[in-house]
Amino acid sequence: MSNTRAFFACKPPHQREPKMYACEPCDETQADLVWGDYAAKSVHYYRRDALPSDFKQTLCKTDPIPSDIAIVEKSEYIGMVENARRTIAETRAKKIVLSRSLVVQLPEPFDVLAFYKRLCSTFPTAFVYLFNANGACWMGATPELLLKQDQQHIHTMSLAGTRWTNEGKHTAWTDKEREEQAWVTTFLREELRNLGVQELNESEPKTIQAGHLQHLCTELNGRLPVEVTPLDAARRLHPTPAVCGYPRDVARTFIESNESHNRSYYAGYIGMSEGQKAEFYVNLRCMRVFSDCAQLFAGGGITADSNPGTEWEETEQKLDVLRQLMHTV
After folding, report:
1. How far is Cα 266 from Cα 38, in angstroms, rounded to an integer?
2. Which of 117-120's residues contact partners 24+ apart within 8 Å by CB, and which partners?
3. Using one digit for the tens of pLDDT, what is the confidence trace for 65-117?
4. Per the confidence metrics, is the pTM higher than 0.70?
């Protein structure tokens, strides 16, 4: 993708309408859009405003699905969870985030831009994006901020733990869910201090809504040293324990050895800058659109107390967010 012109639409949280851009590849120092995959390989673009007609024309071109794409079945996922629990019991790992992918047939006809607009209206508090580079088409509605910077002020969030909203009835967060989210907070606190962040403070954990799902969230704020750029900070924080695990090195090694599918841009990051302001989001609740089908992704944090069957059901609930919405366009 690095030498390919791209089209990008985005609607940050609480912004009423999405903006559309044509994006030219450029050097990192000139970029105001960064598109990074889970493995932290990134491509850089310079944005300019695009017309909806130009945008829609490029969306007609989407790749056919590769023949070797990996689908994670229930038995495989449960086996990975059991293996992760053994690893946690035998090593210094505390949390390992496992993911899976699923391919679903697109309804006919399927209008990519209409579905994107539906995502925008359904998830007003999410970062909702659509990205197409020469047929590689991704879209998503992520609730997770990686970092936000305004001059030297930096803001990030520890987001983990998932539960389904059941007709307004809320149960208490379990010890497993609170522990899982606490590891993310611990990691962010450590890494922000390693970056030299001063005046660091954090909120108490709170519940936030993301569509039909709820998550635990702790907000962290501080002052970043002048010499540290937003991209420097993003690379230092990514991947957080919310998408990888804790400690990061042990979890990353386990994921690389056990997941059969390529995460690609799932659990990667999208970053935009303008002047001395920048925002980076973790690419969750996302899918890659092919010519007649879509690849969806979901994951969950595994700890010593995880139940394999429950973890599978959590990924099913997360996949349903986009899977069910496809048939309501």
Report:
1. 6
2. 117/18, 118/325, 118/328, 118/329, 119/325, 120/11, 120/17, 120/18
3. 777 787 889 999 999 999 999 999 999 999 999 999 999 999 888 888 899 99
4. yes
Sign, CA dihedral 272-277-283-284, equals negative
Token representation of residue 151:
């001059």
Contact present, 283 and 58 (Cβ < 8 Å): no
- For residue 83, give the H/E element and its range: helix 74-90
Residue pLDDT, tens place only, 141-178 = 999 999 999 999 999 999 988 887 765 566 789 998 89
The Cα–Cα gap between 43 and 31 comes to 9
Residues ≥6 apart with Cβ < 8 Å to 108: none
For the chain, domains (ranges, CATH) are: 6-328 (3.60.120.10)
Q: Interior CA angle at 296 toward 292 and 300, to 5°?
A: 170
